[in-house]
Design brief:
single chain, alpha+beta, Alpha-Beta Plaits, 4 strands, ABM_dom, Dimeric_a/b-barrel, AI-2_Isomerase_LsrG, catalytic activity, ABM domain-containing protein
Length: about 100
């Protein structure tokens, strides 16, 4: 099985602007709801470290890298990421994982 066909995981570190936190969360939750309707999205959870209220983490699993690539091109996702640019203190950090 090639890496393109394996389950694909992401950990996205998100740092909302303190003055735009509510807007950022609303935007992320909207994008999450839409993502969960995609057949390639297995799960997506927005979580917050208990020791760091200024950082959020989105835990994501897609059926494959190709499914994630398709996800990134969805109009709601392109539009949502553009909106997030003004709501975040720094660009999100993405880490990619494949199952062993």
């Amino acid at each position: 099985m090639s890496d393109q066909d394996r389950a694909f995981f992401l950990v996205v570190t998100i740092r909302p602007r303190p003055d735009r936190r509510r807007e950022a969360e609303a935007q992320l939750q909207s994008m999450r709801r839409d993502s969960l309707t995609e057949p390639g999205c297995v799960f997506m959870h927005l979580v917050q470290p208990q020791d760091d209220p200024d950082t959020w983490v989105m835990l994501e699993m897609f059926r494959s890298r190709a499914a994630w690539d398709e996800h990134m091109g969805q109009p709601y996702n392109v539009r949502g990421n553009a909106i997030l640019e003004d709501l975040l203190a720094a660009p999100s950090e993405l880490r990619f994982f494949t199952e062993k």
